[in-house]
User: Which sequence fits this backbone?
């Protein structure tokens, strides 16, 4: 089945999609910063040695709830999977340029179906890049292919995770405010509660004056 969003996505590279996310966030008036995640490193005695990259991206978003919701909704297009026919065509092309390993006697149709089901969990551009742009000496195992797909999708997945976390934090803050006793809840007290909740999630809220 023809899928216009997936077709447009497949015409791009993961690097291009990742670069476009900053522009998309700006259009939605959401501050977005993606950096390398760092983890503390200690020696065997527990002495702190410093920080080293984990190899994974870390996304931080900041904006009002409506804008975060808008960006999260628009980001859905960046995860559009390719259709069955398109994935089958890419797998067939890979089969011509990357021969099967010796001794492989897997049923071709069953193997194709198994790969297709799993590749539908990834965006179209990621699948195309993994199958046809990456160089494979032999037809890859699913473990090898999954590792590449996970690597290619991790940037936008980190952005989506940060947006979802921001949305959830907003909901928790709103629920906490609603649960406050209304009797004696003056405007000043309401503002203090909101400020305290905002301080708990500084990366998710924009301070508003007045």
Assistant:
């Amino acid at each position: 089945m023809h899928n216009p969003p997936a077709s447009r996505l497949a015409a791009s590279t993961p690097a291009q999609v990742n670069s476009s996310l900053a522009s998309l966030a700006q259009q939605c008036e959401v501050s977005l910063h993606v950096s390398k995640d760092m983890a503390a490193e200690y020696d065997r005695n527990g002495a702190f040695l410093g920080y080293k990259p984990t190899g994974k991206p870390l996304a931080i978003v900041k904006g009002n709830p409506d804008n975060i919701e808008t960006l999260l909704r628009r980001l859905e297009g960046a995860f559009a999977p390719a259709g069955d026919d398109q994935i089958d065509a890419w797998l067939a092309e890979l089969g011509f340029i990357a021969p099967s390993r010796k001794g492989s006697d897997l049923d071709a149709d069953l193997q194709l179906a198994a790969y297709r089901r799993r590749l539908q969990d990834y965006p179209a551009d990621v699948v195309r890049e993994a199958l046809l742009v990456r160089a494979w000496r032999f037809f890859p195992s699913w473990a090898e292919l999954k590792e590449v797909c996970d690597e290619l999708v991790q940037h936008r997945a980190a952005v989506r995770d940060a947006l979802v976390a921001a949305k959830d934090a907003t909901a928790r803050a709103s629920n906490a405010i609603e649960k406050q006793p209304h009797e004696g809840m003056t405007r000043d007290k309401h503002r203090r509660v909101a400020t305290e909740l905002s301080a708990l999630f500084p990366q998710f809220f924009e301070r508003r004056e007045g």
